[in-house]
Design goal:
15% strand; alpha/beta; 261 residues
Length: 261
Amino acid sequence: MFHGKKIVVVMPAYNAAQTLERTYREVPLDIVDEVVVTDDASPDDTAIVARELGLRTLVHERNRGYGGNQKTCYAEALRLGADVVVMLHPDYQYTPKLIAPMVGMITDGPYDVVIGSRILGGTARRGGMPAYKYVANRFLTLTQNLLLGAKLSEYHTGYRAFSREVLESLPLAENSDDFVFDNQMLAQILYRGFEVGEVSCPTAYFEEASSINFQRSVTYGLGVLRTSLQVWAQRRGLARYAFLADEGRLLQTEGSTPAPE
């Protein structure tokens, strides 16, 4: 518990057997009530490692994609009664040591959502972010801020904390099951007027850390621009989109099972 609130950390995992334990060991368990790992049908031993660590582990029977994996994460966290949910990649690219301040910015206000920004501290390139990804990040963020009317330092971090109210109100089931899910989620949050805070977060790129290739990065970038344009169009009454609806399909944990003993 943290200030009377139940805190759940969720880790959407795929081929994270080599980094999961290292990540988990730095989670501040004095304030975190539960850690949930959802294994997206990894061909490695991710689920076995998670079970050996004593973590609540769900395993997809088939690969559902990065977005599909997060849908399972959030549905399970809400089912467990979480007041604040922190999404942390189990590849150790982001430090778990920021969980406490991120949670505090929600439980004590004034934010509904907090993201760990790799850009605020100016260390992204020193942490190993490829030059083309850094340039793309800056271009996409500038464009999105203009289209969404926001002033975030970046939209593409995989380190995020949410209040229960946010997760219950967003039609997340309408979002993509692919990588653009993250961006659609932030667009929904800004569209609904939730308060978003940021903390400076160092990042580390190394061989075991997950990363999408150039081709998928291009696909992601185009999806990001499309998402922002959709928000821009709906705000002006030019179109309507299911992922920006006032109500949407509830998240379910269908298609996942507990990890085998």
